[in-house]
Amino acid sequence: MNRGTKGVLLVGGLAVAMVATYVGLSVAFARAVDPNRYCESGFSPLVGCTYHWSSTSTGQGTPIFTIPSSSTSTPSSSRHPFRTVEVTTWAVADCPQNYIARRLLCAVPSGATTAQAASDDLATGLPRPKPWVLTTGKKTSFIEAIHVETPLDLAGTLRFYRGELGKRGWMEDGGAVVEPDRAVITFTTSAGPALLRLTHQHDRTTADLSLRKRAAATSADILPKPGQVRLMLGNATDEEAVITINERTIKLAARAGSEFIDYPEAGRKSPDSPEIDLLPGKYKVALKVASGAAQNREFEVAADETWGLLVGPAGVPLPVHLY
Fold this sequence. Notes:
This protein is α+β, with helices and mostly antiparallel strands. It has helices at about 5-35, 100-105, 155-165; strands at about 50-60, 65, 85-95, 115, 130, 135-140, 145-150, 170, 175-180, 180-190, 195-200, 205-210, 230-235, 240-245, 250, 260-265, 270, 275-280, 280-290, 295-300, 305-310, 315-320. A hairpin with a 4-residue loop joins strand 1 (about 50-60) and strand 2. The longest helix has about 30 residues, at about 5-35.
């Protein structure tokens, strides 16, 4: 072996060793500075992120109990001495646009990487990929649903859900629609029909997963008009919000309609929850609160669905699938 070959092998060996050392140190460093594993959601305390979350449970014949939002605690479920008939959860990881810091602490898988599972949604137990930056969950007597926004690409998100739902015994029906920026798949489960809808726009993929239970909703206060979409609006902040959708602008007072419905089994709508009837399709939403910058989102809804759109911290739009 000549000196040139030895030199190449030596340099290559040093490069491999340096990469292995860097990866090992990064993992150890992340464990040390992120003991609560906030990187699972894209949140890390070292890059000045704030982590907001809320869990609300409604019990039959009881008042609503709400766990306050927290930017420092890890969400945990609470036991209430009553029969829970509805649970709503939401969480937002708000991080600065510091690409280098976020890559060092919370590495984002590429499209060719198999996504890992974050903790299941607290309300529904449905799976979420990591990392995620926004998530909502809804569990009632007639639906279990989650909405997740992740920096993963659509292909990686689709692989994750097909794998995780297959482990749970969900059977994929025929006729799946899979396109570069959109996917729609139906499943058959022991509890009822399920739907997975993925859309990709800008730098994130949105996943909407819903399971319709066999106990169907019957109240006109939660059901949409046949062939249409019902959109209820709510404001979880302490300041007025302005929502523009479908060329219609609506002002929401602080805390107006934040529960959407006041008794889920009966489906009674909260009296201060404005609503809009929409046709199926994609819609652009603009949302603004006085203390925050305008937030713009595009979301897709299908016929015979009921959704809630909640104004979250800093005016972040929080879609919640209600039926």
